[in-house]
């Protein structure tokens, strides 16, 4: 190994124990494509578990702070149960009518909003530092520490149930520490995936891969709702154990980069040649392993063209998305649908249709942006379409269960589409900008800046909702529609540039096609 490599690079250039075991069993080196499959699967599971752990709070909210005298918690998967079921049919393990102090008081909704703020504020701040550290540490170790730490503090929140903890500051501190460890996830997984996959069809590939967010939200909702009948503490402990376990898988299996496992694309192509024109296996950044690369500074990363407008757009996009993430189950449980109120468990299950729509929206946004080669136009179009979707969901979602599900699905598609696009393909695009001159040590920093800025909006949205919802849910939806509008407007300059580029490209192609015709006439 060249002496020019720094300690971080020397530490990364060691195959994980699990990779060495697989190669020992197969008695040959794993192919480049096999490593790519491992990266996609492991990072998908890793970030899905992050979101599963993050989602539990929204499911338990209406249990900690019940708004009616009768709250049904009998859970049967996908079966509709209502809050006005006879008391003798309910199976509970604590006094539901009283909620859980201190969240059962008149200011309980505001306290829950403050928990969201604490978690997301620390998450946003930690995101900036995590990106900075991630470009300077072994990402496999860094991600493992973050996942195990997240599991510990998520579980400690649930331990408050059995320990009979009613001190608000206990839950506040635990949430803040959970947010700090959660911030390690996104910059790390995007940086690892970015080192293994090329620009060709990046939007589509990352759109599909980004389904981990919705899969995590859905699985977190189902697990938390299922565990409520055994005591709300289990709704936190079980996801905490899951993410800690997957963190160990990350430590054993995740190859941080092709250099870390000695994977050579050229050698792999000799074994299984690609078709002409295929570039899926080409890494985002082709760097010389013998040349020491300096990590990009925080201010320098902000100056990369496109980083600031997309980061600010994500601020408002995540404000909308995370308000739904943290408050949608609560909103459903407090809204009479077809004249009936749904139980906590059923409300949590129903809210997963928003995330199903998010999966479709993320894939569509990635595919459309690839076909158009226009990230800003795609993201802004989805944000503008989210405005009428939000209006119709608030205005007509209560008329029937079927209409609520359909409108929720459509809203999730338009809200999560640009969010998924910006945090994946756009971050990877900007993290490999030509101004970086092939530096592979910038992906985590750029990703952290964009998602960290977005996370500030993610903290503000749920906080404001906690206060505004006590007076009017219509005002909450007005706030979300205004945020979606601002998110689209922030990309106006980039949209103009993309349109101008398309026009210039069209004219260039037109003049090129006319030239041969003129030659034939001569």
Descriptive report:
By secondary structure, the chain is mostly helical. It has helices at residues 7-12, 17-26, 32-64, 108-134, 139-162, 168-182, 185-196, 202-209, 211-227, 234-253, 258-261, 265-271, 298-302, 307-333, 344-350, 352-372, 375-396, 401-431, 443-468, 473-489, 492-521. The longest helix is centred in the first third of the chain and has 33 residues, at 32-64. The model is unreliable at 1-5, 68-93 and 266-292 (pLDDT under 50).
List the secondary-structure elements in sequence, H or E.
Answer: HHHHHHHHHHHHHHHHHHHHH
Please count the beta strands (DSSP E, at least 2 residues each).
Answer: 0
Count of DSSP-assigned helices = 21
Percent helix: over 70%
Uncertain spans: 1-5, 68-93, 266-292
The secondary-structure class comes to: mainly alpha
GO molecular function, one term: transmembrane transporter activity
Organism: Populus tomentosa (Chinese white poplar)
Family: Belongs to the major facilitator superfamily. Organophosphate:Pi antiporter (OPA) (TC 2.A.1.4) family.
Region (Disordered): 264-283
Topology:
Layout: H1 7-12, H2 17-26, H3 32-64, H4 108-134, H5 139-162, H6 168-182, H7 185-196, H8 202-209, H9 211-227, H10 234-253, H11 258-261, H12 265-271, H13 298-302, H14 307-333, H15 344-350, H16 352-372, H17 375-396, H18 401-431, H19 443-468, H20 473-489, H21 492-521
């Amino acid at each position: 190994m060249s002496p020019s490599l720094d300690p971080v690079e020397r530490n990364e250039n060691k195959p994980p124990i699990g990779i060495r075991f697989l190669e020992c069993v197969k008695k040959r080196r794993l192919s480049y494509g096999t490593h790519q499959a491992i990266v996609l699967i492991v990072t998908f599971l890793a970030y899905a578990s992050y979101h599963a752990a993050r989602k539990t709070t929204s499911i338990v909210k209406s249990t900690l702070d019940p708004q009616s005298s009768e709250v049904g918690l009998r859970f049967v998967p996908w079966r509709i149960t209502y809050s006005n079921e006879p008391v003798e049919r309910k199976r509970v393990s604590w006094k539901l009518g009283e909620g859980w102090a201190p969240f059962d008081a008149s200011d309980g909704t505001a306290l829950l909003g403050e928990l969201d703020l604490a978690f997301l504020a620390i998450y946003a701040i930690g995101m900036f530092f995590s990106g900075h550290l991630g470009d300077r540490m072994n990402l496999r170790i860094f991600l493992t520490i973050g996942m195990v730490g997240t599991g510990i503090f998520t579980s400690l929140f649930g331990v408050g149930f059995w320990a009979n903890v009613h001190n608000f500051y206990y839950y506040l501190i635990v949430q803040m520490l959970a947010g700090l460890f959660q911030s390690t996830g996104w910059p790390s997984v995007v940086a690892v995936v970015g080192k293994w996959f090329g620009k060709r069809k990046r939007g589509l590939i990352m759109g599909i891969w980004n389904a981990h967010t919705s899969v995590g939200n859905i699985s977190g909702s189902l697990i938390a709702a299922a565990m409520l009948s055994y005591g709300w503490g289990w709704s936190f402990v079980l996801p905490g154990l899951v993410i800690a376990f997957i963190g160990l898988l990350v430590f054993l299996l995740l190859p941080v980069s092709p250099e870390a496992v000695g994977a050579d694309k050229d050698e792999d192509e000799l074994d299984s040649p690609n078709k002409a024109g295929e570039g899926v296996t080409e890494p985002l950044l082709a760097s010389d392993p013998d040349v020491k690369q300096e990590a990009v500074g925080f201010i320098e990363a902000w100056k990369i063209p496109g980083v600031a407008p997309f980061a600010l757009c994500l601020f408002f996009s995540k404000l909308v998305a995370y308000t739904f993430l943290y408050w949608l189950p609560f909103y459903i449980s407090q809204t009479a649908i077809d004249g009936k109120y749904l139980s906590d468990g059923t409300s949590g299950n129903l809210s997963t249709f928003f995330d199903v729509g998010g999966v479709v929206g993320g894939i569509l946004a990635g595919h459309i942006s690839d076909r158009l080669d226009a990230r800003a136009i795609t993201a802004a179009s989805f944000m503008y379409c989210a405005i009428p979707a939000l209006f119709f969901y608030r205005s007509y979602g209560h008329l029937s269960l079927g209409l609520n599900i359909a409108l929720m699905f459509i809203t999730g598609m338009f809200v999560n589409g640009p969010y998924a696009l910006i945090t994946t393909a756009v971050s990877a695009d900007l993290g490999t900008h030509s101004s970086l001159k092939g530096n592979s040590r910038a992906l985590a920093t750029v990703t952290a800046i964009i998602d960290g800025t977005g996370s500030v909006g993610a903290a503000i949205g749920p906080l404001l909702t906690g206060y505004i919802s006590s007076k009017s849910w219509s005002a909450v939806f007005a706030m979300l529609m205004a945020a979606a509008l601002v998110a689209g407007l922030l990309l106006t300059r980039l949209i103009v540039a993309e349109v101008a580029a398309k026009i210039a490209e069209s004219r260039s192609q037109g003049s090129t096609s006319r030239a041969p015709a003129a030659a034939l006439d001569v």
